[in-house]
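Example 3.
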Amino acid sequence: MELLALPDDGVPRLLLDIGCGSGLSGETITENGHQWIGLDISESMLNVALQNEVEGDLLLGDMGQGLGLRPGVIDGAISISAVQWLCNADKSSHEPRLRLKAFFGSLYRCLARGARAVLQVYPENIAQRELILSYAMRSGFAGGVVVDYPHSTKKRKEYLVLTCGPPSVSSAVPSGKGEDGESCSDDESSGDEENQTVCISDRHRPRKKQKVNKKGKGREWVLRKKDQMRRKGNVVPPDTKYTARKRKARF
Amino acid sequence: MRLLTHNMLSSNIKGVTNGFPLKIEVEKVVEKQVEINHDFLRNIFPKIDWKAFSDAARTMGYVELPEQAPDPSVLESDLDFLTKFHHALLELHLEEGALVCPETGRKFPVNKGIPNMLLHEDEV
């Protein structure tokens, strides 16, 4: 997950971890020799991070209120499954659109030119992803969505790869594709948003409706199932005239 | 909180135009040994607002940094300076205290080394 974020190797850089939680992702950054600042809204999570003795600095803050950072100082930002929370309104005063705008606006400001932000998101539905993406684009980022394992529900991961800078630097998106290939996801799709919506099926797609009518399943169905089970070698009670007969109403 | 982070932080209360630098109110400072990395120091140096940095270091009780921003060339040769720079930037931690917004005077408390930058609803 880390591979995407780093613009180039060699010198250690200053990274920002948005929604760092207990500092798990920060530890990976430390292992790669970079300095980082973590931001999280939850004090208890940050206390856990303190106990883990993470190397980076921690801030208690709300990304929906904007990041209070000086312009152009951060070399890169990562965020693991945090941004979609901006779409929730936990308080009556929260307005998801404004919060998204504040977040992306301030993120754009504090990143150095050419810096990259990689946000792993779990959007609830397509509309939510579109919303996040549109606000990211509006604040000036260039980039797109990269998906790992698009066909697996469990392992599926979506990354928003955003590059800070004029949108004319369109080379940013293709490099996102290439990197994804390197990071050995078995299947990839990225770039074009339209392609995205085609190949991405909703995580929470409704279950196939089972045909249950009021009468319940008939005798025929039960016999068929029993037969199936017998063929599998299971122990199945014999078919009698009582098979699949309805019970009497006792009360 | 290290001075590195302090140097990056600014107040983002609505209507504040210049929320940087945040003043430091010190209650407790701790020092933690960190391995020195010259490449990182050279990389971060241009991004540091030196005046805010040296002032902050002074408030924390570390007076060995020059007041004026030194010439970038010292980074290449002067190991003594690099060590001081490193010490102030990464090893001094503000453990307890507060950060004060220079314009509104709003205090952001620092507990266990974590500054609480949460804003009230009317400040967003």
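Chain A touches chain B at residues 10-14, 33, 35, 37, 41, 43, 46-47, 50, 55, 57-62, 65-70, 72-74, 91, 93, 102, 106, 110, 112 (CB under 8 Å). Residues 14-195 of chain A form a domain with the Rossmann fold fold (CATH 3.40.50.150).
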